[in-house]
Amino acid sequence: MTSIIIAHKDKDSLRFWVDALNPIYPLIFIDNIATILSNDQYHDKSVLLLLDAALIDEIKQLTLICECIDKVILVGEGVSDDQQVQFIQQGALGYSDIAIEQQLMERAIQGVLNNEIWLKRHLIPQILKGVVRKKKLSRSQDKFHQGTQQIQAVLTEREVEVMELVYSGEDNLTIANVLSISNRTVKAHLSAIYRKLDVQDRFQLLVFLKNIHISHLSS
């Protein structure tokens, strides 16, 4: 079962998160970054780190943390858009304001556990631009240069519909409601899309579509 590490500068400031998550997940509380980096038991792939942004003094600290822990969500107050984007660029999978509805909190946790990015929608283009710039410097970028016709040839009509909604920024629950299918079916379609387009996850799919300037695929 997934354990959640809550790394806090002020535990009381995260009380709402603690109260909401405590009945669902085993919680571990720590109050400094050094403990995260030095303790191997926290580096397990089943662990999710909920990190108080106030603990980050230098961005390189976050880089080191993300090298140890795969799934990191930062939470904070008054964090600028640029800082939020930088958090993701350094390896975190999500950022949320401390004040958040419980339903959105649960969706954020589940999304990151599924290796999805949790970030304000209007910031996604900034993330994509940064990734595309980095990818252009790599020979591995070749696989991101497939054309629209090839995509249509390998994907079913329903898979294209799912992919368009993903590109529009919709989460799995919204896609399921729009297409009148189950959440499990959405996940099955996404798995098929990732396999056929040779991408690993939702984020790489967004990069793929952005890089070949896909705006509309279905007829």
Describe the structure in your own words:
- The chain is α/β, with parallel strands linked by helices.
- It folds into two domains: 3-119, Rossmann fold (3-Layer(aba) Sandwich), CATH 3.40.50; 127-211, Rossmann fold (3-Layer(aba) Sandwich).
- It has helices at residues 15-21, 33-38, 59-68, 81-89, 102-113, 124-135, 148-154, 157-167, 172-179, 183-197, 202-211, and strands spanning 3-7, 27-30, 47-52, 71-76, 94-97.
- It has a five-stranded parallel β-sheet, sandwiched between helices.
- Helix 8 packs across helix 10 and helix 9 (172-179) packs across helix 10 (183-197).
- The radius of gyration is 18 Å and the shape is globular.
- The chain starts with a strand and ends in an 8-residue tail after the last helix.
- Residues 135-146 and 213-219 have low confidence and may be disordered.
The CATH architecture term of the largest domain is 3-Layer(aba) Sandwich
Q: Quick check: average pLDDT?
A: 83
Distance between the termini: 43 Å
Considering the protein shown, what is the CATH homologous superfamily of the largest domain?
Response regulator
CATH topology of the largest domain: Rossmann fold
Instruction: Name the structural class.
Output: alpha/beta
Low-confidence stretches: 135-146, 213-219
What percent of residues adopt helix (DSSP H or I)? Answer: 40-55%
Tell me the total number of β-strands.
5
Q: What general form does the structure show?
A: globular
Largest sheet: 5 strands, parallel
Strand content: 5-15%
